[in-house]
Amino acid sequence: MSAARPILIVEDDDALRQVLADHIASSGAFESFEAASLDEASQHLGAADARFDSIILDVGLPDGDGRDFCAKIRKQGHTMPIIMLTGAAEEGDVVSGLNAGANDYIAKPFRANELLARLQAQLRLFDTSEDATFTIGRFTFRPAAKLLIGPDKKKRIRLTAKEVDILKFLYRHANHTVSRQVLLDQVWGYNAGVTTHTLETHVYRLRQKIESDPADCRLLVTAAGGYRLDPSAI
After folding, report:
1. How much is the average pLDDT of 118-133?
2. What was the pLDDT predicted at 175?
């Protein structure tokens, strides 16, 4: 069982944007969200439940330069991989895009399979980097460092490797119930022979760390047959 990772495609060419969205979604690994302008992209990123694992960003957009937008959202703290698309492939254009904070730069016309491969490569790098951060309730979750960081940056909660794996998997399935058996299989392995009691013990300890009131769970809740993570809960 794998979660479809949300990808924001910012491209003003309607036909190209649709081709990209369809191709990326057809892999089964991603869910595509579309924006035809920087204003639409800002609305997507500013939504209360916004959660994008990567952005595919055109340089030439009707309401501004994608490179300026990239630099702007980097300053706002967005760390997800950004792949820029452009009709210009001169060295200076590539350098300016990378200096703005882009992770990769692809010149048009390009092959959709190549873009997909580069997207997957960037996500693999990001998932194991110190830059990978996710918001869970009032905490910033940094999987690579095995840390939950409080809103004042002073409170730091250490997590075990299994707690990190549980949180990461539930985050990928945010607001959807994940069965206990699926969690066991994904975190411990299909042939581990671990019982649900082991999982329940880890979840109990995790709740002691992340919930304001472990007796009234809001973030990591028990659902029919499993658990559900609501990252926007407090």
Report:
1. 85
2. 86
